[in-house]
Specification:
Blueprint: H1 3-30, H2 48-61, H3 67-92, H4 96-136, H5 147-169
Length: 170
């Protein structure tokens, strides 16, 4: 994977993520959660599943011919879901201390999860585009899954496990 491809794919993912964040924030601010007392627990909406589902989907989309189109959409969906849930939760929290506690408890696992999603999305986009080239042409000079792919996948799996442990222990 060359540096030019890496820069371009990260730029596409960043634009997609920011677009999802903006749309999610606008939607979340207009959404009325209807909480009776304005209190929302830190576990409402963010769980271990929400930490793991997007990176796992990115890896699975990397084995698909349609991953070149669907991986940027997945990153945008993660940005939307993250900002929508934060906007709704913040609009229902009445006290500033509740907001600070929520951010303190969930910020580190979420940052780990989003970072892992970007790393795995770049790999998924590369492998999906390589599969697409292989489907069009009979031969491709690039390796589909090299040792770097598996090492990055192992590091990301460890990081996601740490994020899930932090999310459940804090």
């Amino acid at each position: 994977m060359d540096k030019r491809f890496l820069r371009r794919s990260l730029a596409v993912f960043a634009v997609s993520f920011v677009f999802g964040v903006v749309v999610g924030a606008i939607s979340g601010n207009t959404f009325n959660a209807g909480s009776p007392n304005g209190a929302v627990s830190a576990d409402s909406g963010l769980s271990m599943l929400s930490i793991m589902v997007y990176p796992i989907a990115a890896v699975l989309l990397g084995t698909s011919l349609l991953g070149g189109v669907l991986v940027p959409l997945l990153v945008g969906l993660k940005g939307f879901a993250l900002s929508f849930s934060l906007s709704v939760m913040f609009s229902t929290m009445t006290r500033f201390s509740d907001r600070w506690q929520f951010l303190r408890l969930r910020a580190i696992p979420t940052l780990i999860s989003v970072t892992v999603l970007f790393v795995l999305s770049v790999q998924a986009l590369h492998s999906s585009l390589t599969l697409f080239k292989l489907a069009i042409r009979a031969t491709v000079n690039e390796r589909l899954y090299g040792s770097r792919y598996w090492i990055n996948l192992l590091i990301c799996a460890i990081a996601l496990t740490v994020a899930a442990i932090l999310s459940n222990s804090l």
